[in-house]
Every structure is written in C-alpha cells, then in structure tokens.
Amino acid sequence: MPVPSNFACLEQPFIVLTPKRMETTTSATVTADSIRQLNDRIQQASGFVDLIDHEMEKAIVGQKDMVHRLLVALLADGHILLEGVPGLAKTMAIKALAQTVNVAFSRIQFTPDLLPADLIGTLIYSQRNEEFTVRKGPLFSNFVLADEINRAPAKVQSALLEAMQERQVTIGQTTHTLPEPFLVLATMNPIEQEGTYPLPEAQTDRFMLKVVLDYPRKEEEKLIIRRNVRPEGMATPQHVMGPAEILEARKLVREVYMDEKIEQYIVDLVHATRRPETYKLADLKPLIAFGGSPRASIWMAMAAKALAFTKRRGYVIPEDVRAVCHDVLRHRIGLTYEAEAENVTVNELIDRVLNTVEVP
After folding, report:
1. Residues with Cβ < 8 Å from 321, sequence gap 6 or more?
2. Are 58 and 237 in contact (CB under 8 A)?
3. pLDDT digits over 258-289, tens only?
4. Which of 39, 66, 74, 102 could form an S-S bond across to 314 if both were Cys, CB 3.0 to 4.6 Å?
5. pLDDT digits (tens, 9 = 90+) for 187-200
6. Fold equal for 14-45+256-356 and 50-229
7. Which pLDDT tens digit goes with each residue over 21-45?
8. Separation CA 311–CA 314 (nearest Å)
9. What is the second-level CATH architecture of the domain 14-45+256-356?
10. H-type helices in the chain, by residue range?
11. CA separation, residue 47 to residues 41, 50, 52, 67, 99 (Å)
C-alpha cells in the first residue's frame, strides 16, 4: 500500500514521539524514506493477520468487530472488556484465537464465593518434604477469559486487575512473572445485574477496550446452525504463528508512524470529553460527570497503531482513530443523573464529539 502523498514533502527530518510501555516516551528521527521503508516492512510482517482471520472464521460466524478488536488488543498489549448477552461466542472467540497463535488458554467463571487464591494460586504444604510449594492458579496462562467479572467481589476483581497492570502476582513472599503474551478478556452480562459487583471506574479504566456485542444477522445465524448440527461438528482452527512472533509484531506496532496532527486529534477528542464547552459542545457539559483519563489518549494511539498494522499500513490515518474511538472511550466517560434522566447514552456523546472535533 503506498504512503500518502503528503509524506513526500518531508525532506527535512523531524522528531516524532513513540509511546514506550505506558509512562515513558522515546524520540526518533523520521523521514519520508524511512516511512516508506517501514510501510514495506509492515506489509510483509503483517501477512499473518489474514491467516488468523481465515482460521478464526472456521469457529466464529460473524462478530467481525469482536475478532478484529481482539487482535488489536493483542497487538497493542492491552486487555479487553466484552459486554453482551450469553451465547454470542465470546468464549469461543478467545479460545479460537489462542489456538491460532498456539498459546495457553484458561477460563475462570467468576462467582460471589471466588477467592483471590482461586485466581493466582496458593502455597501447599508438603509433609514429605516439610516445605511449602507453589501451586499456580489459572491466571498463569497467555490468554485468560474472566467470565462475568462483575459477579466476583471487589477483592477478587482487584487481584485480577493488579495482575493485568503489573503482569506479575505475589504468592507468599515470592513474586512470579506472568507469561508473555498475556491477554485478559473479561465479559459482563448487561441484562442480569442482580447479585453483581459493578466494576469501579478506576478499574474499568485499566481495560484498553470495551466492546459491546450485538446479535448476529439472520444469514449468519443460519450458518451458525448448519455448522453446529453437521455430523463432523465445528472445524478446529489451526495455529499459524507462535508467541514469539506475537511479541515481535508488538514491537513493529509501536514503530507504526503517527503524525503530530494525528496525535493532536487524539488529544482533542479526549479533551472534548473533559471540557466540552471549549469545543463548541457546551450543551454536553451538564451530561458528562467525568471524561477520558490520560490512559484514554495512550490507548487510543496504541489501538490506532495496531489497527493500521492489521490493515497492513505503516502509518496511522484519522479513520483509524475514529474506528477505535468508541471502544476506547465507552467505559471512560461518566454520565450525570441528568443524562440518565434524558436517556442519553455514552455512544451518543462520543458521536457528537466525533462529529464536532475537526479532523486533520
């Protein structure tokens, strides 16, 4: 895919900031030639995306957005929160993805009687050896499905979210590093709320994306029926790459070029949720209790880079930012009682922001 023509005018080198992990940045000199070279490298290195899509289609019918967002979160080294009614292939999707990239997968059903040790593991005393040994919990997998995370009490939620952030857990007096790549997919049922423990805003903020799932279309549902009732059953996805290749792809994702105008666009979108009156959106101010945090800006940039990578591009365009904006901001904007009384949704607020903030 060719580099946009506006990059041809970049005869003089300039400085671009590249996010490194979450808190630090490094600068690198970028020229038009280096962008073209990077674009060629990423076109070659991102070929596995089509292979993963092909294998995932064997197990998942429809739900393209969920599959693509899973891949974006995996490549950007983030975690994802799925909201949808039971039966929409949430478990099957992450299990199929684990099979395609050949990594360990575990599923944890969150219940009110769950304990932190049920996730991270515990110390077991051996009478024969007269010493304690570590029995690791299901959290020590590459892909972890936290099913109905809002059904577990706060102490268990905190244990999971700490592991998500620090990528390590402490059992006894020893700290254990979690395997890489490490991806947590948490699900929530939007219908049944009785006996649940809603995630606080500070904890949902640690999820890179929140994806809301809808029912499949009629044609897709007919295909789902056919695949599930045929004598040979559902096809099993084959692995097309390994963990080491995922880690290498993550390094390339961070190298995806992002122009300063795109960075400013991301900042404007996030700031418009905090101070809407400064972006000609004064009517939204009484509806927003709090806007996106700095994590929103970081993850929007990383998600846009990962999406560009999956599109086999070495540079970010405004459409990449707009495509991930809802999933990044959906769980980071708080509504006031006035907004709830007027039946205003977060998606409607994000739509207003996207339609008002000037696109570079």
Report:
1. 262, 265, 266, 269, 300, 304
2. yes
3. 999 999 999 999 999 999 999 999 999 999 99
4. 39
5. 887 776 665 667 77
6. no
7. 333 333 345 678 888 888 888 888 8
8. 9
9. Orthogonal Bundle (1.10)
10. 32-45, 48-59, 64-76, 90-100, 116-120, 154-166, 201-204, 218-229, 243-255, 260-274, 294-310, 318-329, 337-341, 346-356
11. 11, 6, 9, 16, 18
**Residue 61 bridge partners (DSSP):** none
- Domain 50-229 top-level CATH class: alpha beta
The length of the chain is 360
Tokens of 346: 């977060």
Domain ranges of the chain: 14-45+256-356, 50-229
| DSSP letters for 245-311 | HHHHHHHHHHHSB--HHHHHHHHHHHHHHH-GGGGT-GGGGGGEEE---HHHHHHHHHHHHHHHHHT
What is the band of 6 on the pLDDT scale with cuts at 50, 70, 90? very low
**58 to each of 103, 106, 142, 221, 278, how far by Cα in Å?**
18, 21, 22, 14, 48
